[in-house]
Amino acid sequence: MPNPEYSVMFDPYGFGVEVHLKSITQVYTKVLQYLFSIDLSNNRLNGDIPTGLTWLHNLQNLNLSQNDLWGEIPQEIADLKKLESFDLSINQLSGPIPRSLSELSFLSYLNLSFNQLSGPIPSGAQLSTFTNESYLGNGALCGPPLSKNCSGDHGQSDDIHKQHGDDSAALRAMLQVTTDKIQQGEALATIAITKVPPALRYLFSIDLSNNRLNGDIPTGLTRLYNLQNLNLSQNDLWGGIPPEIADLKNLESLDLSINQLSGPIPRSLSELSFLSYLNLSFDQLSGPIPSGAQLSTFTNESYLGNGALCGPPLF
C-alpha cells in the first residue's frame, strides 16, 4: 500500500513538484529544471517509478535503489539524455529492460541487480560496456554479458544461473535479517557475517549512515572484497578501526565520521591505493596519523574533531 505520509506530484508544464510529507506541503517550481542529481535510496518507497522523473532533462544521477518499487522501468527514461549514473538495484521491478536505455550515450554506471527483470538484455553501444554485475539477481534475464543464453541452451549456463539465483535469495535474506535487527535496536557488532553467500562478492557499496548503530565495527565487513564504498557515519559505533580494513583493496570511499571510535588510525589504511575519499572526523581517535602515498593526499578535514590525533596534515 502507498505510504500515506509521503507523496510526490509533478507538473511537467511548470517544471514544478509538490511534495507532501507528514502533513507538510512544499511546492518547488522552476528550480527543478536545474536539478542534476536525485538520491532516494533506502527510503522505503513503494509503487511504480513515476514517469514525471523523466521530465527532469538535466538529470545526471538517479538512485532509487534499496526500496520496494515495483512495475516496469518506464520507456521514457530515454528522455534523460544527460543521465550518467542510474541505480535501481534491490527493488521488485519486473518486466523487460527497455531498449530505450541504449539511447543514453552518456550512461557510465548502471545497476539493475537484484530485481525481477526478465527477457533479453538489450544490445547497444553504451550498454555493451557494462558487465554482468549490472544485472545480477534477475533470474529471468538472459543474454550477454550474463552466462544464461536466450536461445534455450539448458546446459552449463543454466547451472551457473541457478547458482546465482540461490545467491540472490541468500543476499536478500541477509539484507532483510540485518535490517530487522537494526530496527530492533540490536548492536551492529552482534550482526555477525558468519556465512557470506557467493553473490556478496559483487557487493560494492554499503551505506548505513545515520542508523543509530552501536557496538564495534564487525570485521566480517572486511571480507566483502569488491567493496568500493563504505559509509557508517553518524552512528554510535565505538572501539577501534579494524586493521583488516586493508583487505578491502578496491575501497575508494570510507566514511566513519561522527561516531565514538577510539584508538589509533590503523597503518594498514595506507595500503588502500584506490582510496580517494576518507572521513574520520569527530570521533575519539588518538596518536599520529599514519603516513603513506595515498593518505598524504587527504587534508585536515578528514581528521577534524579528534583532539588526541597529531601529525600532518593537522596543525
TrEMBL record:
<dbReference type="InterPro" id="IPR032675">
    <property type="entry name" value="LRR_dom_sf"/>
</dbReference>
<keyword id="KW-0325">Glycoprotein</keyword>
<dbReference type="Pfam" id="PF00560">
    <property type="entry name" value="LRR_1"/>
</dbReference>
<keyword id="KW-1003">Cell membrane</keyword>
<keyword id="KW-0675">Receptor</keyword>
<keyword id="KW-0433">Leucine-rich repeat</keyword>
<keyword id="KW-0472">Membrane</keyword>
<dbReference type="InterPro" id="IPR046956">
    <property type="entry name" value="RLP23-like"/>
</dbReference>
<keyword id="KW-1133">Transmembrane helix</keyword>
<keyword id="KW-0812">Transmembrane</keyword>
<keyword id="KW-0677">Repeat</keyword>
<comment type="similarity">
    <text>Belongs to the RLP family.</text>
</comment>
<dbReference type="InterPro" id="IPR001611">
    <property type="entry name" value="Leu-rich_rpt"/>
</dbReference>
<protein>
    <submittedName>
        <fullName>Uncharacterized protein</fullName>
    </submittedName>
</protein>
<dbReference type="GO" id="GO:0005886">
    <property type="term" value="C:plasma membrane"/>
</dbReference>
<keyword id="KW-0732">Signal</keyword>
